[in-house]
Amino acid sequence: NNHKIQWETNFIIESNALNYKFLNTILYRGHITDDMKKTWINKGDENNIIHSEIRNTLSYTYHLSNKSIGFVVANVDIINANFTDDLLRLGFEGNFQHQNTTLNFSNTNIRASRFQQYKIKYESNLNNIKINGGISYLSGDYHVSYIIEDGYIYTAPFGSYLDISYNMNAFITDTSDFSLFANNGNGLAVDFSTDFRIKKYNINISLSDLGFIIWNPSSLKISTDSTFNFQGVEIEDIFNFNDSILESNNLTDDVFRTNNTSFKSYIPATIRFSVSGETNYNY
Length: 283
Hints:
The structure is a single chain. Strands 1, 2, 3, 4, 5, 6, 7, 8, 9, 10, 11, 12 and 13 form a 13-stranded antiparallel β-sheet that branches. It is built from 4 helices and 13 strands. It is mainly beta.
């Protein structure tokens, strides 16, 4: 009874706007109607947040009389996105309905990360106060971040031309190795929690997975300031269409900078405070 082995698989998807009906249609097939699209766009704040996490965990714990020690191995996949309603309008409706309008997709962030976590944890119970602590080594597989600080698209009446401008930074780990359990970065994380009782109430305070990963110097940092003006492509011979026709239109004016460098990313942390107990009040 002193030994405990546990396997957990957790799938989390959180959003401040994505509704259950829309998600069910994506997962289990179905027709996404215009009303469902409008409901998502009009629901919630101007900024839409989606966070998804898949965590597979295998843990071993050895219990003593008033303390325990354990070891945890976990594989974690995380996708996080933050984007504006205007970007949803462009994706769902296209730009035909937004002629003579500037759509704003500034402050758009998309991040994806995978890492393995190797944790040593310790728990002690002293005078009915439970204290937990843990430290983790993080082995990073990959990380991709796209951060658009400023972004706009203007569609002229009748679609006679498009103006697009954006300022973007991107961070991408070593593109030569995206295999499972690839070690492209190393990091640390810490845990701490305590449980105690005040009168007839149980108090829990915890901080878990406060940590970071430093990715290796072969990672890529990409910065670009771009303007894009599209006035259509004139094709004189459809059977002689090639890339030089697009290049001759001089569509872009880019300041594009790429260099190999190390960078740091943070993993999602959880802070919890809870009070539980019996009360005479009913509601």
